[in-house]
Amino acid sequence: MTETEQKAPPGWLVLLLAVSCGLTVANLYYAQPLLAELRQTFGVGEAAAGGVVTATQIGYAAGMLLLVPLGDRLENRGLVATLLALASAGLVVIGVAPGFAVLLIASLLVGAASVVVQILVPFAADISPDHIRGRIVGRVMSGLLFGILLSRVVASLLAEVTGWRVVFLISAAAMAALAVVLRFILPRRAPKTDVHYGQLIRSTLAMARKHPPLRHRALYQSAMFGAFSAFWTTIAFVLTAPPFNYSQLGVGLFALAGAAGAAVAPLAGRWSDHGHGRRLTAGAFVLCAAAFALAGFGAHSVVLLAIAAIAVDTAVQTTLVVGQHTIYQLDPAARARINSVYLGTFFIGGAIGSQAGSIAYHLGGWTAVVVFAGVLPLIGLAGMARTRV
């Protein structure tokens, strides 16, 4: 059956993929609202605590470049189950970590194993016909994005009631259960190449040279995700300090504001299907920069901070979905490898944003953070003005 003759995937499968992505990607973000508690537990400073988020994102970027290409080489069900089992093991180690160094190493492992998300997203693209691919990927991505946003709420609520370690132990159990479910329920997907691993990695890197739109979109999203990470890594420090003095529960409830932005993902996919991706991207860059300008005035207003959070998340999710819609059309036989370059690049941007945001907050407070993060989408907009994607 040709790609144009494909039937739309059943709704239950799209929902399963969306939920799986949301549960797995949440592992990358549980630590963000818990940084104040991690500082107290391990006796480290703000910049060092931010390193937990950075380590997870570095692990994820490494997994994108070294593990996700295997999605084109191996049968996906077994690969997905193996990675989820590794993620479960790493989360257990985090939950019982006796020292900060162990926590960092386990965070790297969990980040690397959580790239299973980026095997499932190309899987969704592969089983979708051309004319609705953006819509289906957008629905799956909405699950992923809700996972990113609601992870903070769940982590805060559980930490308030039980303790931060329980957050990671519960996620470990969820990953183990998900490994079993996906191993037996996912449709079989035949490998698309039989080249050896070294050649596979070289061919992955070659994708960036071969496809300029991939390079451009990866760099755009790197700038946007850097801004996103700087905001959400440091906002817990702002909310737990005067004048807010929020509890862990308060930080979690604030994170609900950002969840409103996830609703844009299916719409962005639909508009991309109709050829509006470039205008959406430009608008998202402007919205993100404006959001940080607003956040700069919100140091004493939780309402302004919440509006800024919604705008930042909406902008980042828009460029993410539009970018994936663009790159998935480049080479259908290499979607996992193309996706690994795209996601690996922008998670490097996220890791830089997390650590630089933590350092900026340590050196210059919230004002330094919003200036640093607000410049990043403007850099992306300037780069976009010189390209056609």
UniProtKB/TrEMBL annotation:
It is a multi-pass membrane protein. The chain crosses the membrane at residues 12-30, 42-67, 79-97, 103-124, 136-158, 164-186, 218-240, 246-268, 280-299, 305-328, 340-360, 366-385. GO terms for molecular function: transmembrane transporter activity. Pfam families: MFS_1 (PF07690). Keywords: Membrane, Transmembrane, Transmembrane helix. It is found in: Cell membrane. InterPro entries: MFS (IPR011701), MFS_dom (IPR020846), MFS_trans_sf (IPR036259). It comes from the Bacteria. One of its GO terms (cellular component) is plasma membrane. Residues 13-389 form the Major facilitator superfamily (MFS) profile domain. This is MFS transporter. It comes from Amycolatopsis balhimycina DSM 5908. The lineage of its organism: Bacteria, Bacillati, Actinomycetota, Actinomycetes, Pseudonocardiales.
